[in-house]
Amino acid sequence: MSVAAEPLPDPHTDVASIPATVARVRAAFDADRTRPEAWRREQLAAIAALIRENVDALEAALSADLGKPPFEGFVADLGVIIGESRTAARQLKRWMRPEKASTPVNMKPARARLVREPLGVALIISPWNYPVQLLLSPLIGAVAAGNAAVLKPSELTPRVSAELARAVPRYLDGEAIALVEGGVEETRALLEERFDHIFYTGNGRVAQVVMEAAARHLTPVTLELGGKSPCIVAQDADMEIAARRIAWGKFLNAGQTCIAPDYVLVHRDREEELVEGLAKAVRSFYGDDPRSSPDYARIVNTRHHRRLAGFLKDAELAFGGELDESDRYIAPTVIRNVGPESPAMQEEIFGPILPVIGVANVEEAIAFVRERDKPLALYLFTGDPELEEDVLARTSSGGACVNGTIWQVAHPNLPFGGVGPSGMGAYHGRATFETFSHRKAVVTKGTRFDPKMMYPPYGAIRTRLIKRLLG
Length: 471
Ligand code: NAD
What we know:
Bound molecules: nicotinamide-adenine-dinucleotide
CATH superfamily of the largest domain: Aldehyde Dehydrogenase, Chain A, domain 1
């Protein structure tokens, strides 16, 4: 398969119009337009309809921008949004319901509860690798929680950006939900404005820019970032399964997945077997020539293609390594004998290149992981439950999956997010609703009687009594 090579002008919005756009959306929030449950339901249904009625156009845009196979485009970008909006609509009443808290006897008569209230206007900034999902999935929680929102898709997937810019005003409430296309300049202009929450997905360097801007207005942030997610393969692992599941998680979307296994630490005794298994899995997924497979994606742009090609310069290839810049193609590739100082180990790879590193035992693998930044995901292949507990207890990562890859992000009842440099905050399902809600603590006092104990003048006797009661 080949990617449409025609260049498209970068998405752009007149930055002078941005303050008025944000003001319009804020006015809608201030007028309580977004609070009613009916509005939230309408918008959730409209998000699902936006996807359902534009599947072909969005799939075509994903294919043109990323060479994304229709299966992957539907499952990971489009279908997931239909599913999440349906879940949010189904659960909305329960999520919105105030949560009762019990009241201790010394505080009675009183009734206590937690009330979820919308934060206000949310800014959602998304990257290019799952460009529909990562923009609209946070929006689902934002509208479910009754917020207005401004969306900023990535400029690096311009056709998807254009499709979304066309569809969002047609389907969603244009008074309360705006989409601003563009890149650095437009995002900087947006960040000058005051928001009530900023939800940013992308790399850690830009996250610092976002957080600094947010600090000026004391705006809370959710940062969904990346990092080098390790995959540990223990001596007892089922190697055929491990190889297949690692290859699937790594070469999905040509490795451009924030939770793709970045590198593998495998017990030295089983290294050969793993590498052979990976080669076999790749052949069974994409045939002898992955380039002609309809199921293998392309690299997003020439800059990233060159960056990835740099990792292969002096690398020892186990298999793969074929490159074609004109088609933004890089074959599924495994490299070996990769030292910690090699270029591929200096940054998140974010492409279809997998370093396989032999280790003497799991202890060495744990030490290797702990010496580095806390990753977004950690993968472990073992059949030993004790080893599983040990590795999970002694390593820190945003999430983890044992004997599999990627599944932790897809689980409907688990929040997804990073820790330390891989991010802060989490979302998906109810967690997205919570991210965009303020939990207001409310006490309603009864008025039938009003004990004078707490009112001055306190006097010595009451002071002694209170010390005895509470001390
Ligand atoms: P990107 O280049 O599309 O940037 C993300 C967003 O930041 C875009 O909307 C872009 O316009 C904006 N931006 C870029 N530079 C900016 C600047 N200087 N000032 C203000 N805004 C700016 O995407 P990316 O950052 O290359 O995305 C890849 C990274 O995102 C990887 O590290 C990956 O692991 C991570 N990621 C994380 C998740 C997650 O859910 N945790 C999901 C996908 C990707």
